[in-house]
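Message: Just now I want nothing more than another pair of eyes on a protein record. I am handing you a single protein, as its sequence and its fold in token form. As I understand it, each token names a local backbone shape. Take your time, and here it is.
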Amino acid sequence: MTVEPDETPARRSDATRAKILEAARARFAAEGFRKATVRAIAADAEIDPSMVMRYFGNKDGLFAAAVDIALELPDLSAAAPDSLGELLIHRFLAVWEEPPGNEVMLTLLRAAITDDALADRARAVFAEQVLPAVLRYGDPADAPRRSGLIASQLLGLALCRYVLQLPPVVAMTPDQLIADIAPTLQGYLTSHPG
């Protein structure tokens, strides 16, 4: 009979890191960057606070890792032209309504509103992920304007649905949101400067 060795140190390290990130995302989403403490996050992860520092250096490093998200926006250049807005709102809902994206995005949105340094991280997500997705479709010279309009629409929805929790917006089903917002996004994706 062969006995399997215990987890390797690398696997334990990955598991510990994942456990810290999960606790950090939940704590940052619930309390925001300023109120969340390394000690509380460590307690949530059931580890010593020194382990948080070992893996992430400091609270800023932990926050940066916790809100690091790949939006995985669809390749709009490969899509049917009349489905672009629907593809974007589908992806938006997947990111905002499923873990861990929901906690990451909520944390990033809340933090960016109150902290200039953290707003830089939100702008980086826009510049690195939203703008390139829009550049794949339509006039590249107009992509920054169209990307900004898309971001304003989706962040406005996020603020009303997930932060402020406005009852009529929260009550809408994903299908209702798609039906109402996809045409607006479609217009931004296919519009030309006037």
Remarks:
- The chain is about 75% helix and 0% strand.
